[in-house]
Amino acid sequence: SCGISHTIVLTTDGQVLAFGDGGNSLKSYFVKHYGGLGTGTDAHASTPIQVELPSEHGRIISVQAGNQFSQALTEDGTLFNWGNNAYNTISEEEYGSYKSPVVNDQVQRIKDEEGVTIKKLRSNADCSLALFSDGSLRGWGCNNYGNLGVYHVLGVEIQDILVPKITRLQESATYNHQRVVDFDLGENMSIFMTEDGKLYK
């Protein structure tokens, strides 16, 4: 998965490798020390470096790289994040950065309380969408183009632009309350398909 200035790789044996800009380059001047490579430092890496992740959650099944942040999803549904949290891409807490992987507390809470896990994850520069096992599509991060599909009208209040809490796409009779079966996320838009074969964007 390629981010703005770094790359995250998942190997066939489940290792996660990272290389590129770790946060200490001129490109990252305004968001120094974000640690997007997840190696515990903000150092640049011109060759792949292994990201150390706990093994008790099983194999890593998916990785995503965004704008100075990264994510890794395990087979038991645990989501690890690291890097820049400027748009709440990692946590609903205030702006900061994480140089090493941390468990996404919101995803863990949904898993514990609702008994559902992420089946598919996609990230763009500053936001993420996840398809959960109950057929719900939920997003978090920067929503400035309405790409998360939640209560956005351009030019209104800041809470419509930043979505710090993981939020379901709006419940709507338009979707006939169908489960989402697949989706994808672009830079400024998203698209999904419901179980009756209809596409929405």
Question: Please, could you describe this protein's structure?
Answer:
- With 201 residues, the chain is mainly beta.
- It has 1 helix and 14 strands; from the N terminus they run βββββββαβββββββ.
- The protein has one helix at residues 105-114; strands at residues 6-10, 16-20, 45-50, 60-65, 69-74, 79-84, 97-103, 118-123, 127-132, 137-142, 162-168, 180-185, 190-194, 199-200.
- The strands form 4 sheets. A 4-stranded antiparallel sheet has the order 4-5-6-7. The chain has a 4-stranded antiparallel sheet with strand order 8-9-10-11, with no helix packed on it.
- β9 (127-132) and β10 form a beta hairpin.
- It is globular.
- The two termini are 23 Å apart.
- Residues 26-32 and 152-160 have low confidence and may be disordered.
Name the beta content range. Answer: 35-45%
Oligomeric category: single chain
Count of distinct strands: 14
Query: What is the number of helical segments per DSSP (H or I, 4+ residues)?
Result: 1
**From the helix content, strand content and strand pairing, which structural class follows?**
mainly beta
Radius of gyration: 16 Å
Give the ordered list of helices and strands. Answer: EEEEEEEHEEEEEEE
- Into which percent range does the helicity of residues fall? under 10%
